[in-house]
Fold:
Amino acid sequence: MAGIREIYGTLMRRAITGAILGAIGGAIQMGFFKQGVMHLFAAVAAGVVYMAAWVLLTDWLKLAGGKVLLGAVAGLLAAILWWAIAMPAEHVFLQAAVAGICFGATYAWSDRRMT
Structure:
């Protein structure tokens, strides 16, 4: 039983953290930028996907390329999901992808500096 907790504990903690941070980001979008509720849902989903991808790419799969590059990949995946939920088909995919890459790389860089 303890083995399962060890394996999935980090993933669940990061997914919950991503949901909380996504909810905060979505609430800011709704409150200050007057976006719709789909932006809130998109931000929560993107937060969960980012943190889950971060754990899968760095901790479980241990892919080469460094945590900064893998954080950028996780950010890109989260940005694609956010864009797919929140935006109409013709809007700012490239901006969302670039923002996701930048956020992911910055988070990974700052996380690496803390350890």
